[in-house]
Amino acid sequence: MVGCLGNLYDSLQNLDNKYIQPNQKKDTLLKPKSAASVPLLLINNSLVEKQFYKCPNHSDYVTDDPLTHCPISRTYVEPPVENVVASDKGLVKGVVTYMVLDDLVVKPMSTISSITLLNQFSIKDVGVLKEKVVTLGMDEALKLLKTSLQSKSVLTSVFMDNINE
């Protein structure tokens, strides 16, 4: 397969069954009967309203957790993990964190897998690493799809071209 889109397929094929919901099978995505039967996106068409809270003296401090005390960080704050209820919808279990590599290989994330990845890329000083928060909307999803058919470094091409933004 051209680009690295095949890595997504291989990642799912190689994913241990312990990460799959008990009532689901990987073959639903790996060997679909028809395109209409593949639940790629579980999108609820109804709008979900989210309520945000601000510190009275700092209007640019925002959270969606009403229990957060001021002062809160200047960036958006997710609610604590214990307030999040895992969904039984979808193929994979919701309590596992996954990492997506530049070539679209997807793996369950753990401390060991992170250290292995740092060793693989010969990263000796973690201070040289940079974090970039990205927004994933329809435009970015289309760029990801197009780039995944043309490149082996999809995430870099789509999200890091404008690193100074």
From TrEMBL:
Superkingdom assignment: Eukaryota
Any Pfam family: DUF674
InterPro entries tied to this protein: DUF674 (IPR007750)
Name the UniProt record assigns to this protein: DUF674 domain-containing protein
